[in-house]
Amino acid sequence: MQVSEGQCLWTPSKSFVADSNMMALIGWLETQQLVACENYQELWQWSVTEPEAFWGAMWRYFEVLSDTPYTQVMSHRDMGPGVKWFAGSQVNFAEHILRHEGNHAAISAMSESDALRVISWNELNEQVRRVATSLRTLGIEAGDKISAVLPNRVETVVAMLASISIGAVWSNAAPEFGTQAILDRLGQVGPKLVFFCDGYEFNSGRFDCVEKFSDLLDHLPSVENVVRVDVLGGCQPFPNQYCVNSWTDIVTGDDPGRENFIFTRVGSDHPLWFVFSSGTTGLPKAIAHSHIGVLIEMLKFMSLHMNLKPGDNSFFYTTTGWVMFNLLVGMMLTGAGIILYDGSPVYPETDTLWRLAEESDATHFGASPTYVQLMESNGIVPKNHYALTRLSTVLVGGSPSMPSTFDWFYQNVKHDMWVTSQSGGTEIASAFVAATPTQAVYAAEIQARALGMSIKALDDKGVEVFDQVGELVCDLPFPSMPLYFLNDEDGTRYNSSYFEEISGVWRHGDFIKINQRGGCYIYGRSDATLNRFGVRIGTAEIYRTVESIEGVSDSLIVCIETDGGGFYMPLFISLENDVELNDALRNKIKSALRNECSPRHVPDEIVVAPDIPYTLTGKKLEVPVRKLLKGDQLEKVASPGSMKNPDSLAFYVDFSKTVSANS
User: Fold this and answer.
1) Count of other CB atoms within 10 angstroms of residue 290
2) 296 within 8 A of 55, measured Cβ to Cβ
3) The pLDDT of residue 535 is above 70
4) Could you tell me if 546 and 499 lie in one domain?
5) Domain count, the chain
6) Which domain holds residue 366?
């Protein structure tokens, strides 16, 4: 039976709700005489009506460690750059992760060639102390910049926490990125020290990166030291002119011991890391977040919205080039362990990640809707082959989910399970809309607006709307807002990115629908909006319809304005093997869109494309394709090094010439 949007798929048991971290917070708030809330909706309303009280309560509830007390929770409520959070405090993000200890699992890691390896909390703490001490010996001080180009491995987490623990500013890029894509990122940062791997594995291939990274070093004059992490082994050394240290040497250096190691606590405006926008439209933005901003936001999100607890083991398939890697590390703030996988999610077998979930005793499993489609098309039914006895929670993220995505987990993994979704972004290192363990799960619905996030849907006139699609905005500051962008001294780029379009709010660039119970639906990027004759259409609903049609494997749709004031909306589709676009299939697609969506959803033309372009993080390149069709040059709209399939754009460049000729 086909599942429809908004259909109730699961209701939490009374014990699940009662044992949740969310209910523990509600009880604590009442005992502290801060607020009495009957349900999540009342708690959310209080959090955005009294933000100073709410965020101050988060500080106390999670027992934030600071050398000095803060003098003010937030400097003002006006939405825009420059809000000061917990001024006067001195904190360290890594310290709050590493206050957890014990012999139970902190990191469980597997790769294409390595069996599951488990690192305990005590082992993790020791390795971080040793690496941090070695970094100090190499002259690294608070405020210095450290970058890494490493795969999704234990060493990367250790290097990250060690760097942050001494006040260095972290940034990372994935080794599979192209040379220019890495330089676009690290070149902005200007790191003093870089962690490089010798190479990486993916889909049974071994990719030697020594030559590529040696060339990169020639373009990074700020680098004084290199730490080499051997992943492949047997590769050539880096050139002699660079001061290269081995990972083995720095991780086996002196350990001052838990009592003697000093975390460098830093002020509320001290940058924690630089994360990067996807880089699909020119040079990626290098976004700085603060220690305290990310700390307080992630304590809230990982504990309350993800319901993570000590002893849990949480997995999300990611690469180090995506902010999801940072978020995965942030899950450890709760005392939960994390699970890493380095390699292709479908190698050596299509169901490899489910084997990992069983072997690592996963409680939380995260993947993208694209992964679910892959499982479905290959007939994978994890419940028939794997004992996922502790698995209680699924997190679907990375792109808008369809109703069938949620239902697949209930039909093929477990019928009694909390299937969640969320939506946020690199810019906020968190989510605007999120899950809550106290409420039912409805197909394709994100359960609620996140605590402390004053999210609204605005129509074209700037009026808040419910039960209809509008622009996602946030009209109240939140702690994990960027401190600044690199190379944006006057804040022009920061301001234009979020605050220029609609005054007084953060415009995130997503379409959202919020219903009366507070449930949220994301309908794609508003800057990739299909705007036909003044009516805005989100792309997600079109993909949901088109990609359910037999013979269609993938799709992409854009809409451009023509010179005569009209609109041209082509639908690009990729077809399964031995399938042709004939009149019958063309009419079937148009009929489905007309009947399941509306006549405005029917494209002007259906075009067979050899491939649909994607970023490395699995997002369709709607905006670059739209710009190509409007006449922009390829080099101005897309960064090939940030793409999964850069050669795919050649087709759209050629197609754009036919559009220009006919406009």
Assistant:
1) 27
2) yes
3) no
4) no
5) 2
6) 93-514
